Structures are given as structure tokens and as C-alpha cells.
Amino acid sequence: MAKKRKFYAVKKGRKPGIYLTWDAAKQQVDGFAGAVYKSFLTKAEAEEWMATASRKTTRKVSMRTPSTVTPSIILYTDGGSRNTGNVRGGHVRKEDVAAWAFLIQKDGESISGSNGEFGATNNRMEIMALINGLQKIIDRYGEKAAVLVVADSKYVLDAIQRNWLSGWQRRGWKKANGEIVANKELWQAVASILKRMPNLEYRWTKGHATNEGNVFVDQLLNKTMDRMLREPTEFEAPKKAVSNPKPSLAVQDSTADFEQLGLFHNQQISDD
């Protein structure tokens, strides 16, 4: 079997660039103090990585200055899918189920929301969870609310924290290689919301592990996907892209549903 071709990106070295062989890349980094380099399976991925600032630099040029307000609200978000795209060589089919969920906690009160789409990707659901969770916070607590966003999606968090989002905006919602950003209309909605909310902080957590909030939203979105299989007519396929999409209405869980999941059942469940 032929060996897969790799692309070697040298971000910091004698001569930064993308090389087709490791020997060529090695000449640029071997013995170079503080060299930064990485291999990729596609040239597009290598170009995207080269276009982003390093983690150390990103902290200085991030889209927003870290909030000095102590968060009083925690927002957990998660997205998931059960599609053939999860299998190597597969793709998302129109009948595949996907869902998102969020959980908001503040002063003993918990608010949850979840919904799903047929034929949607996992990444789309991760963004939808963030949009709907932040919009619910705006509606209930206002735009100045101090919020800690906890998510297991590096796709979402890196786009915000590593300045990818602002880069896409500058390039007219295109990646470094000129391709249109996937989920463009959703990222436009995220950018619009972030401008209105100055007191946001972010934290990554390992998915489906020991973080109760993350486990809760994962189980909640899986309940939604189960329901999609039982009652498919209540859910829709992804709509065509629009410039300023409105967040989906969140399907609120009942207290009984929380107790069935075995999490947060001693807290108040409210969505007045």
C-alpha cells in the first residue's frame, strides 16, 4: 500500500513554510532554538495552521480582553451526531440524526435546552449549542452577564480563543486557502453575539468524563436524538444558509427528565 503523502509546516525555523518531505523540513528546524513545526495530511490544514498565531501570541491578539468580572453563570454546551460521517470514508446522510444541548447554572437555578436536525454535522451542532445557550443568557440575564463557557469542542473554542474567527471575518469568511468557512452563517451569528457580551470566559473540559455539567448536556442531546428516531416529523433538516440566522427554539426538559438522568435533580429547573 502506498504511503500517504504528508505536508510539513514550519511556523518557526530557519525558513518558515510548507515542505513536502520531512528531510526538507528537518533542515529548517534541526538545531533551531524554539522551532515550531507540525505535519498534516492535507495542504489546506497546513495552510490554516500556518495562518494562525501561536498559542502564546494568540493571548495577546485575542478577539477580546479577558473579563475582569468573576463569572456568576456557568454555561455548558455540547453537540453530537450519529452519522455515517463518523466512519472513515463515510459521509453525513439526510436521515442521520444530530443534536445540541446546553445547561445554564446560576445561584442554584438550572436551565437546559436541546434540539436536533437531520443530516447535520457534529461541528454544526457544537456551534448551535453555543449560540442557543448564549442567547438564552442574554434573554434572561442580559448582555453584560459574566459567563464561564465550558465545552469539550476544540473546534468551537479554538475558533474563538485562537483568533480564527476574526481571521475568517477579515478574509470575508474565507479560510487561509481561500475556501469558504464551513458553517459560515452560524459563525456569523457567533461573532454578532460575542460583540454584545463583553464578560465571557472559556474553559475546555474532556468530553464524557468526570465533569457533571458536560456529562449532563451529552446525555440530554442523546435523549433528543433518541426522540428524533421515535418522532422524526417533529424535527427538520438543516435550512439553507442565511446571513443572520436566528437561534433555534430550545426544547426545555422537564424536572422528571432531569431526575431520570440522575444529575442536578436537587436544583431548581426553570425557564419562565
TrEMBL record:
A biological-process GO annotation: DNA replication, removal of RNA primer
Residues in RNase H type-1 domain copies: 69-226
Cofactor field: Mg(2+)
Full protein name: Ribonuclease H
Cited SUPFAM superfamilies: L9 N-domain-like, Ribonuclease H-like
CDD domains noted in UniProt: RNase_HI_prokaryote_like (cd09278)
Protein family: Belongs to the RNase H family.
Role: Endonuclease that specifically degrades the RNA of RNA-DNA hybrids.
Alphabetically ordered keywords of this record: Endonuclease, Hydrolase, Magnesium, Metal-binding, Nuclease
InterPro entries: Ribosomal_bL9/RNase_H1_N, RNase_H, RNase_H1_euk, RNase_H1_N, RNase_H1_N_sf, RNaseH-like_sf, RNaseH_domain, RNaseH_sf
UniProt key word Methyltransferase: no
PROSITE patterns according to UniProt: RNASE_H_1
Gene Ontology terms for molecular function: magnesium ion binding; nucleic acid binding; RNA-DNA hybrid ribonuclease activity
Subunit structure, interactors included: Monomer.
Domain of life: Bacteria
Keyword Coiled coil: no
Gene3D superfamilies, per database record: Ribonuclease H-like superfamily/Ribonuclease H, Ribonuclease H1, N-terminal domain
A Pfam match: RNase_H
EC number: 3.1.26.4
Record field: catalytic activity: Endonucleolytic cleavage to 5'-phosphomonoester
